[in-house]
Amino acid sequence: MEPIFLKIGYGIILLGTSIIRYPHGRRNKANQIITNRKENLEKLLLGLTFLGMMIIPLIYMFTHLFAFANYNLPVSLQIIGILLIAPMLWLFYRSHKDLGQNWSVSLEIRQDHHIVDSGVYKYIRHPMYSAIWLWVIIQALLLNNYIAGLAGLISFGSLYFLRVKNEEQMMISEFGTEYVKYMQKTKRIIPFVI
Q: Which range marks the domain in which residue 57 is found?
């Protein structure tokens, strides 16, 4: 498949996720934070994730700076990447919509925060992370470059594995046994699996 089509596919992800997230970020600025566990390590990892999923891919898409690190994937894997875009965007959208005013980019509890256990949250505790895992897998399949393609997997993977336990501990501290029961009914990122 021509690299331009793959770059356009990734551009659709960048545009789509930005459009989905913008109104939620704007609305939630007015929602008062009552617990904030955003530490320096998380700030660093959020910055690296933004770099790995947005900035480095854009540099790759519009320059030849990383051309020395290109790789070739079978067309079948590239097609899988293209086909995963729609489900990834849908899950990203649903997780934001279902979470509503409880959404935050970092580890925060907001005023009137509650456990969301309906919609996609009925099946998995972290559907937004599931969507982002799909996103970074698609990134590796569409941006056939060891730097731009893998930057998302490395940066988001680091954030996820260092953050998810802290996030769940924060929720247990805030909601106690109610959240523990919710954890027992759901999986973290893949329904009925993990």
A: 3-185
